[in-house]
Specification:
The complex is a heterodimer of chains A (360) and B (272). Chain A has 360 residues and is an all-alpha fold. Chain A is built from 15 helices and no strands. Chain A has a single domain (85-359), classed as ABC transporter involved in vitamin B12 uptake, BtuC (Orthogonal Bundle), CATH 1.10.3470. By secondary structure, chain B is an alpha/beta fold. The N and C termini of chain B lie far apart (47 Å). The chains are: A mainly alpha (360), B alpha/beta (272). Chain B: Residues 10-242 form the ABC transporter domain.
């Protein structure tokens, strides 16, 4: 009976717990950046018409400054690289980075590592917003109509899920996931209904894009709004990475350490909804990127957001570029919606995570 | 390592907290003088944690004021308050990969601008805080996998890293072994800070605190030096136990011995 005072120390886990072997942080970012560069090169090079990697860089360098490379390629290839593949790869990078960063922020905000834009119904909310605009042909705000509507849908869904999961005091993982899944289902049904009952077959066709998640037919003019939102949003999140860290310690601790939790969380919900809205407006709802990437990043560099957010952005970008590459080459010339690829990878990962958490 | 901030006067004025139709704290008034260490005692559900939560901005009082040096803590910007008052809440767990070092580093947050990194001063303060709690060796261990007592020491170290002149601690010793209980309370005393500590162990409270405030059913039933407050009558009334209070022959500190009768002095205790 020597361990009455503190029976939980008897395992001695902590004493022997070594620091998880990690790559030194200054190395992580260059390695991940190189990964993005490799993925992007592959993404531009591969396709129905193969372009050698060297030529890809030649064409890009030539565009940057004509003196950098001599044009030894055909104009067709240059068109393919510059007008078809480059915008698509860039958009993949932007959306992948954005989803990953938003996933990480959401996980801190609801203090639950199973949070993800798709699982929380945020993406479905954005989809409903986007579908409404397309089906009813709303153009009130010109080119911003679509992202704006998607933003409103995302924010409404996020607030609804949060309130549903939070009612009656504490928020448990089970409640959060159930509320998210239920909200996502309802909103997906609404979006499907709108599409199916629409008279305009063209609208229905383009609406399907948001529901499956895909980046086919990306042109340059799709890029600026999501790119700006993701860049600015990521910069803001980096700026608030200390408060985000505090939330990991719990609401009580965050309040004691000077954070006005409710106000901060409300502001961050708006920001995340804005980012997800602009992304869903161009890419549809792509699931699991926001779930998997933050976990891998935390294993690599730890949970401190100052270190984890930049790494999450880079890893997310590389992942979605590769996933999109697989989506358009696996059964070429047919194209699989990229959301299917990420779900095939992410679903099993999610289940593994649930089991691991249940075991611990 | 001394706190950068001077000890503050912590003042509860007529503080009441009503939640879900239940009155958890009822018109409590208490002043903790600068540098004074006061224990908050009372049975489970007496309102100790609730009262503490009102001063570190986790729970807004329904009525009344909590002041630090005259300033209403609920009208003070959070960051500024966190530079003057640190809290050790009851153990919190997370599902994230935070190391003990990361948790203690959060104590520096109120002192930092948003984009500022931790400089060498911060790192020194963090490591010293861990060292003061005897857990420097666990700096890089995952917080989630520490034992209850180790977690508790990490949370105390975090409050230490805040370098405040005032501290509130909610049961900071309930998971600690005997040695570390003494160490933790010696540490808080030695800082010279104003401290309000919820404590279940009345003998520890008597040994380490200037005064004891006893709550029961959300109300203050006694406040004063340990020798005045800790009487057999009060223990019988508040805790419904039969206890003897003696002065310890070597320390002169009131010493409580609870007699192991199942039936309390007035009415029977539930058996389990």
């Amino acid at each position: 009976m020597t361990d009455i005072a503190e029976p939980r120390t008897s395992g001695g886990v902590a004493i022997t717990a070594p620091r998880r072997p990690r790559l030194p942080y200054p190395l992580v970012l260059p390695v991940l950046a190189a990964l993005v560069a490799v993925a992007a090169t592959a993404g531009i090079a591969a396709g129905s018409v193969g372009v050698p990697a060297g030529e890809v860089w030649g064409i890009l360098a030539h565009r940057l400054h004509p003196a950098l490379a001599d044009p030894t390629w055909t104009p067709v290839r240059e068109t393919i690289v510059i007008d078809v593949r480059l915008p698509r790869v860039l958009l993949c990078g932007v959306v992948g980075a954005g989803l990953s960063v938003c996933g990480m922020a959401l996980q801190a905000l609801v203090r639950n590592p199973l949070a993800d834009p798709m699982l929380l119904g945020v993406s479905s909310g954005a989809t409903v917003g986007a579908v409404v605009v397309v089906v009813f042909g709303l153009t009130l705000f010109g080119p911003f109509s679509l992202p704006l509507a998607a933003f409103c849908g995302a924010l409404a869904a996020l607030v609804a899920v949060y309130l549903l999961a939070h009612s009656g005091g504490r928020m448990t993982t089970v409640r959060l996931v159930l509320a998210g899944v239920a909200t996502a289902e309802v909103l997906s049904a609404v979006a499907s209904y709108l599409v199916v009952t629409s008279d305009d077959p063209h609208a229905a066709e383009s609406a399907l894009r948001w529901m499956l998640g895909g980046l086919g037919g990306t042109t340059w003019d799709l890029l600026p709004i999501p790119a700006a939102a993701v860049l600015a949003g990521t910069a803001v999140l980096l700026g608030v990475s200390r408060p985000l860290n505090l939330l990991l310690a719990g609401e009580e601790a965050a309040a004691a350490l000077g954070l006005t939790v409710h106000r901060f969380r409300a502001a961050m919900f708006v920001l995340v909804a804005l980012m997800i809205g602009t992304m869903v407006a161009v890419s549809g709802s792509i699931g699991f990127v926001g779930l998997i990437m933050p976990h891998i990043v935390r294993l690599l560099v730890g949970a401190d957001h100052r270190r984890a957010l930049p790494a999450a952005a880079l890893l997310g970008a590389a992942f979605l570029i590769v996933a999109d590459l697989a989506a358009r080459t696996l059964i070429s010339p047919e194209e699989i919606p990229v959301g299917i690829i990420t779900a095939l990878v992410g679903g099993p990962f999610f289940l593994w995570l649930m089991r691991r958490r249940a075991a611990s | 390592m001394t706190p950068a901030d001077k000890p503050g006067a912590l003042q509860f004025e007529d503080v009441s907290v009503v939640a879900g139709g239940r009155t958890l704290v009822e018109r409590v008034s208490l002043t903790v003088a600068p540098g004074e260490v006061v224990a908050l005692a009372g049975p489970n559900g007496a309102g100790k944690s609730t009262l503490l939560r009102t001063c570190y901005r986790a729970l807004r009082p329904t009525s009344g004021r909590v002041r630090l040096d005259g300033e209403d803590v609920w009208r003070t910007p959070g960051r500024r308050l966190a530079r003057r008052l640190a809290a050790v809440p009851q153990e919190s767990t997370g599902d994230f990969e935070l190391s003990a070092y990361d948790v203690v580093a959060m104590g520096r947050t109120p002192h930092k601008r948003p984009f500022a990194g931790d400089d060498s001063d911060d790192r020194d303060i963090i490591m010293q805080s861990l060292d003061r709690l005897d857990i420097a060796g666990l700096a890089h261990a995952p917080f989630d996998r520490l034992s209850g007592g180790e977690k508790q020491r990490v949370l105390i170290a975090r409050a230490l890293a805040q370098r405040t002149g005032t501290m509130v601690l909610d049961e900071p010793t309930n998971h600690l072994d005997l040695r570390h209980q003494l160490d933790a309370l010696h540490l808080v005393r030695g800082l010279g800070v104003t401290a309000l500590i919820a404590l279940h162990d009345l003998n520890l409270a008597a040994a380490f605190c200037d005064r004891i405030c006893v709550l029961d059913g959300g109300r203050t039933v006694a406040v004063g030096p340990p020798a005045q407050v800790l009487t057999a009558e009060l223990l019988a009334e508040v805790y419904r136990v039969d206890a003897e209070v003696t002065e310890h022959p070597r320390t002169g500190i009131p010493q409580i011995t609870v007699l192991p009768g199942r039936d309390g002095p007035e009415r029977s205790m539930p058996t389990n």
